[in-house]
Amino acid sequence: MRLRPPFMKDIPMAILKFSASAVAAQITHARSCSTFLPNWNGPVDKPALILIVGNGVHLRSNGIDGSTTRIVTTEQSDPSFAFANGVDPFRDRDWMAQRQIAFRDLTGQFYTDILDDVQTLIDRGQGAIRLATDGHSIRVFVRRASDFLIGGTYEVPSGLGGTFRVVLKDACDTFAIVQNYGNCEDFDAMQPYRVPLDALIELEDRRAA
Questions:
Q1: What is the pLDDT of residues 13-22, one digit of tens each?
Q2: FRET partner for 85 with CA separation of 20 to 30 A, picked from 26, 46, 132, 190?
Q3: pTM to 2 decimals?
Q4: CB atoms near residue 40 (< 10 Å)
């Protein structure tokens, strides 16, 4: 996702939390299958996780076996699926309100490519899997505010094909407030702005360079 400071403050973001064991069961199912539910682009030839926003919010295997329908629906769900905390229609009374906080009025299916990243977290012993969503995209959310140093120097994607160097002013577990610092031209004159927390890049991490 391209960032366009300072307009990130206009983009809502939510964190979905799932039981790692429930997600692991869906991954195991997907990997046990040899055929898979198609996505919007057509046939799929490998295991994956699908996020369904409808009757609750849940992750499910894309694998097809004797008990799996080829039709993915947002109207039906199964208690065995991996539901997001607080958005489980089998357990949570206010699940519809919680779903709307994360997705507003949007319902549908996200055909994700997060399986390998999620498996890495499960293998590390994570008890919960957190996914970040802006209502249109889904990504694995690994770090917490406590992992970062207030006043520390980081980089964030600039939206111009490179990065801005920034000082971290404040952070919570969904976003950070940063101030440009040490950049060329007049970029340092920008007012502090908000970016998703996982957009912060350690200076030695060149993933966005």
A1: 788 999 999 9
A2: 46
A3: 0.70
A4: 6
